[in-house]
């Protein structure tokens, strides 16, 4: 686990996924067997690794990535590094023949992300890329609604994501400062468009074109040491996406907005037979036979209680932490030798959308996305 001391690597991948699996004695495969895990922590600071290992009862850690990759007892390489450091490490893991599970974006450019996918294919290396948003309880409920035919023909999707990230002067920022510097791999399009790509692709249809506007609303921020710096990366992005089948999606992503919705991310899906609003956990629906009939009249107060016309979707299941659920699916695929859909090529499609979004913003035009394939 390379980068497990970072924010996401520690909280989601180490503690809530790998250690949770280990501490429960593993999980059961479809054939009744159990799989468990043993982590090796890899990083630059031996002191940090030793502290993490002691805190969580982990026997193995090292600052020598090359030695770890050369050791056959470690079968899977997990990458949770910052984006700028990821490509070089993935190349080493591919060369070592390790199975790979990595955060995204998989590379800084589309060209490099495709090259990595091709290298893994040529080497016969199994790969997996984090698609955590698909495993959110709210989106799993949405998947059920789609599979049941609830929507009829889906017409459009509107997404709102974001919250106010403090500038760092009078109150510390709740995101690392590198997120706001292009030269360090920051920017909300680079961060979030890969997520939106796999959400749209797996729920509504592949992205065929994008029109986006990237903005740096706050040009000056303060870093972790309280030093003022120029924010060179986009902190908000407004995108319109044309999907397969004619579905139109609009998604706003912003670290400069104050929240007035039920959850930090929310999708409103409209179809001919019904609509749904889903977030991280919640989901509510309005079928066509329970849809009110508003009439526009600015001279009279509207008496319809629109909130009351929606009904909640029951959970009907126990949902695991989304990162853990995907880890278990990937580990199952690895042990059983089955195909895994969320591979480095899927990750490259996320980088493709981010790159196209930035190109659209720079040119002020709609950008089409060709289908990606490997040799």
Précis, in short:
With about 375 residues, the protein is of the alpha+beta class. It contains 9 helices and 18 strands. The strands form 5 sheets. Strands 17-16-15-14-8-13-12-9-18 form a 9-stranded mixed β-sheet. The protein has a 3-stranded parallel β-sheet with strand order 5-6-7. It has a two-stranded antiparallel ribbon with strand order 1-2.
Question: What pattern of helices and strands is seen along the backbone?
Answer: HEEEHEHEHEHEHEHEEEEEEEEEHHE
- What is the overall number of helices? 9
Major beta sheet, strand line-up: 17-16-15-14-8-13-12-9-18
Largest sheet: 9 strands, mixed
Whole-number mean pLDDT: 97
**What is the 3D shape?**
globular
Low-confidence stretches: none
How much β-strand is present in the residues?
15-25%
Radius of gyration: 22 Å
**Class from secondary-structure proportions:** alpha+beta
Number of strands: 18
**Helical percentage:** 25-40%
- Give the distance, in angstroms, between the N- and C-terminal Cα atoms: 30 Å
């Amino acid at each position: 686990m390379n980068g497990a001391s970072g924010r996401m690597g520690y909280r989601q991948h180490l503690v809530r996924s790998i250690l949770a699996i280990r501490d429960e004695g593993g999980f059961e495969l479809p054939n009744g067997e159990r799989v468990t895990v043993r982590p090796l922590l890899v990083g630059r600071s031996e002191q940090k690794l030793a502290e993490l290992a002691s805190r969580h009862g982990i026997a193995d850690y090292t600052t020598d990535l090359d030695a770890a990759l050369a050791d056959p007892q470690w079968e899977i390489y997990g990458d949770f590094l910052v984006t700028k450091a990821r490509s070089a490490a993935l190349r080493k893991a591919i060369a070592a023949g390790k199975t790979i599970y990595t955060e995204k974006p998989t590379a800084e450019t589309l060209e490099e992300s495709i090259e990595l996918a091709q290298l893994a294919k040529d080497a016969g290396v199994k790969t997996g890329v984090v698609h955590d948003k698909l495993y959110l309880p709210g989106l799993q409920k949405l998947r059920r609604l789609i599979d049941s035919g609830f929507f009829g023909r889906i017409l459009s999707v509107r997404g709102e994501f974001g919250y106010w990230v403090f500038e760092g002067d009078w109150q510390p920022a709740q995101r690392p400062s590198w997120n706001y510097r292009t030269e360090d791999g920051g920017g909300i399009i680079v961060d979030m468009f890969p997520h939106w790509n796999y959400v749209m692709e797996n729920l509504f249809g592949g992205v065929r074109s994008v029109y986006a506007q990237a903005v740096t609303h706050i040009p000056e921020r303060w870093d972790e040491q309280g030093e003022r710096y120029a924010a060179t990366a986009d902190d908000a992005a407004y995108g319109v996406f044309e999907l397969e089948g004619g579905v139109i999606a609009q998604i706003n992503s912003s670290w400069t907005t104050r929240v007035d919705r039920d959850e930090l991310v929310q999708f409103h899906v409209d179809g001919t037979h019904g609509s749904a609003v889903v977030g991280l956990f919640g989901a509510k629906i309005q079928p066509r036979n329970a849809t009110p009939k508003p009439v526009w009249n600015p001279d009279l107060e509207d008496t319809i209680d629109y909130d009351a016309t929606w009904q909640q979707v029951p959970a009907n299941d126990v949902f695991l932490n989304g990162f853990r659920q995907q880890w278990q699916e990937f580990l199952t695929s690895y042990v059983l030798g089955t195909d895994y859909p969320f591979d480095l090529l899927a990750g490259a499609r996320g980088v493709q959308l981010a790159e196209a979004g930035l190109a659209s913003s720079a040119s002020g035009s709609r950008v089409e996305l060709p289908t990606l394939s490997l040799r």
